[in-house]
Structures are given as C-alpha cells and as structure tokens.
Amino acid sequence: MEETDGSVTVRQVRELSTTLQTIAGALPGRVHSISVRAGECSVEVIWSDGEEARSPQVERAVAPAEPAEPVPDDVLSITAPMVGTFYGRPSPDEPAFVDLGDLVEIGTQVALVEAMKMFTPVISEFRGRVVAVRGTDGDMVEFGQPLVDLLPTDE
User: How far apart (Å, rounded) are the C-alpha atoms in residues 79 and 141?
Assistant: First the structure.
C-alpha cells in the first residue's frame, strides 16, 4: 500500500481484501484467521493444512455435493470463484437466485460466496437450463468447486 496521512482509502481496503482472499485461496486446507497490523506492516495467517483429524461434520461441509440424479455429459458447471461460504439466496427470507429448471443467461447471478465478511457474486458465464444446484446455504466451498450445473439450450 502507498503511504498516506494515516487514513485508509476504500480502494486500499478493497485491494487488501482482494490480496487476502488470494492468499487464503492459495493455502492448503482451511483458513482459520487472518490478522493485519499497520504499524511495521505485519500479516498473520492461521490455517489448517488438512492433515489433522476432521470430524464427519467438517468432512461433509467441505466435500463437493453430488447431484441427486446423473448429470448429462454436456453439462456446464458454474464454479466457485474462491474459497468461502456458499449462499444460494440473497438473504434467508428471499427466494433462491436460481432453481431447478430455470433458464440462466450469461451474466445472471446464481449465488454468493462469502469470505472474510465480503460477499462475491457468482455470475454465470454460460446460457442454459439449471439441472443441479450443488451448493447448500452455509456450506464451505473450494475454489473451482461446481456450484450450479446447466444444460446448454437454444431456447
């Protein structure tokens, strides 16, 4: 970051957040905490490397969800843009971004992934009909993990 009069700009906070998300996504295992200190520039990252014993509940949370029915070979998967918590709806009392059978256009938001209190929209790069929503609200997802499957369509 560039030196200033001691105040931090919104741009600097966004840049730091992006950098920390990149660091967290590159580490093996799960990030438990990240600390940043301004005086004398210090960053501390605490994570598990995945070697410690995991409870069945944690294993279930990080394992990719399997679709209920077989998915055709030509399916297109919209994947997690980063490590974080999956949310399929804008808030608990609102409808899901997408449901089975919905037609999704390029640029449609299909989910959110939250990491370090920052919500990143998951945007479709494909056009197609939803054949599987693999994420469950509150589940941890990994970078590149399939979240929503689409069957290409010419409709």
Answer: 9
- Sequence-distant contacts of 18-22: CB under 8 A, at least 24 apart: 20/116, 21/82, 21/115, 21/116, 21/118
β-strand partners of 123:
109
Global pTM value: 0.54
pLDDT digits over 44-101, tens only? 666 666 554 343 333 333 344 454 455 456 889 999 999 999 999 998 899 999 999 9
The neighbouring-strand residues paired with 150 are 76, 130
Backbone angles phi, psi at 24, to 5 degrees: -60, -40
Tell me how crowded residue 83 is: count the other CB atoms within 10 A of its CB: 22
